[in-house]
Specification:
37% helix, 60s Ribosomal Protein L30, Chain: A, 12 strands, 4-stranded mixed beta sheet, 2 domains, alpha/beta
Length: 287
């Protein structure tokens, strides 16, 4: 179109399915899926006196700070540790290394408190990673998705690739635990719904805490043009406001939008047999 400011173009570094959708409202499901599938991670690359901190968002990496403790003593080539007692200087070095790594931990705590990331990855030499993990407080240790070995001067591409291997495994494990929780709670008559019909009922009640669906799942249905009621039932009028219903092709997209409006968490799951057997969609409920 030649009209100015009609289009906003957003360039993403992650793949999207080729698809054209023309509708009265924005088609948000692909974007919701991306935000769920690509969590934000912080990466700490550490050694005994350096640290480089990175963020990974939407499969892109950026380095945002570097830490350096320049006064860590080094072993002299001759005469032991600067010619003094070796054991005393070894302890002296260990104290300096400890304070350096504690400074890195402090920065990671600040990153978590800011809410920008929820998962952490640690890289460096095998020795440095072991030392660093030993001093991590439990709240941070519980956020570690994995570790890798790399030189402190490794390039961003190498760090990103090694982190991606960890991220793939971490995301798969998170998805499996989430689906297991959904199916277990539903089977025990807990606060969960499975199947599209039950999920739509809970959306109408505003009872969705966490909407979980299989990536690629879609369905057609009916939508009330007045109150937004969604259904897969073959009915003519809305049972809530008696207005007419219109047929819609992207029922899951409308369901996601209503769940988002209610403050729900959205999770798109890749290739999970349990979720497929449960009807491709489910939800953890508020009550």
């Amino acid at each position: 179109s030649s009209e100015p400011d009609l289009w906003d173009v957003f360039h993403l570094s992650v793949p999207l399915k080729n698809q054209v959708v023309i509708d009265k409202t924005p088609y948000l499901k692909p974007l919701a899926s991306i935000l769920e599938q690509y969590h934000s991670y912080a990466v700490a690359l550490v050694d005994r006196e350096h640290a480089r901190l990175f963020s990974i968002q939407l499969s892109e990496i950026s380095e945002y700070t570097e830490l350096f403790t320049p006064d860590v003593p080094r072993k002299h080539k001759k005469g032991g540790w600067y010619g003094r007692d070796e054991n005393r200087f070894r302890r002296h070095i260990e104290v300096h290394v400890h304070f350096h790594l504690k400074d890195v931990v402090k920065h990671m705590e600040e990153i978590l408190k800011a809410g920008e990331v929820t998962h952490l990855i640690v890289g460096g030499s095998e020795e440095s990673v072991i030392l660093f993990n030993k001093i991590l407080p439990q709240p941070i240790a519980s956020k570690i998705a994995g570790t890798f070995t790399a030189d402190m001067h490794a390039g961003n591409d190498e760090i990103l690739e090694k982190s991606r291997e960890i991220i793939r495994g971490s995301e798969k494990a998170i998805e499996e635990r989430l689906v297991d929780e959904l199916v277990t709670r539903a089977s025990k008559n807990g606060s969960a719904a499975i199947g599209l019909a039950d999920v739509l009922t809970q959306i109408q009640s505003g009872n969705i805490h966490h909407l979980i669906y299989l990536e690629g799942f879609n369905a057609s249905g009916l939508k009330c043009s007045s109150c937004g009621f969604l259904t897969i039932q073959d009915i003519k009028t809305c049972p809530y406001c008696a207005n007419s219903l219109e047929k819609i092709e992207h029922l899951i997209d409308y369901s996601i939008q209503r769940a988002i409006d209610q403050g729900a968490v959205i999770s798109a799951i890749n290739m999970n047999g349990k979720l497929k057997e449960a009807g491709n969609i489910g939800a953890l409920l508020r009550y």
